[in-house]
């Protein structure tokens, strides 16, 4: 039988003294979500496409600026609020899959306001 490791002794002391420990990940979710600062003009309304690492894509349409809507998607994913974002629901349903916000594609721009 091998001797107990230093980690085992540390755990026993923490348990004996009723000290609770919590896991803190080394990387925060913000490290996986790149900023939306890109050189293409995202100020127009239009249709955009976001790809996921799993091979699926999300195509969205907005009357506001595409940049604003994508920032909202990022905030929803970061704070795990899936009620307003299908992108966030997708990420929550498929752990360890990441939306490629840095690969945003603009499919169509509309500089006129929608008559909806």
UniProtKB/TrEMBL annotation:
Spell out the protein name for this chain.
GIY-YIG domain-containing protein
Q: State the species of origin.
A: Parnassius mnemosyne
Q: Lineage from the top down?
A: Eukaryota, Metazoa, Ecdysozoa, Arthropoda, Hexapoda
């Amino acid at each position: 039988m091998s001797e107990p490791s230093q980690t085992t002794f540390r755990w026993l002391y923490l348990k004996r003294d009723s000290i609770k420990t919590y896991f803190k990940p080394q990387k925060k979710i913000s490290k996986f979500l790149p900023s939306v600062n890109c050189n293409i003009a995202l100020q127009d309304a239009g249709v955009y496409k976001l790809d996921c690492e799993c091979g699926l894509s999300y195509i969205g349409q907005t009357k506001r600026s595409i940049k604003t809507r994508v920032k909202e998607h990022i905030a929803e994913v970061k704070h795990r609020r899936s009620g307003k974002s299908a992108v966030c629901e997708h990420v929550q349903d498929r752990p360890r899959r990441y939306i490629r916000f840095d690969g945003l594609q603009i499919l169509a721009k509309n500089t006129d306001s929608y008559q909806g």
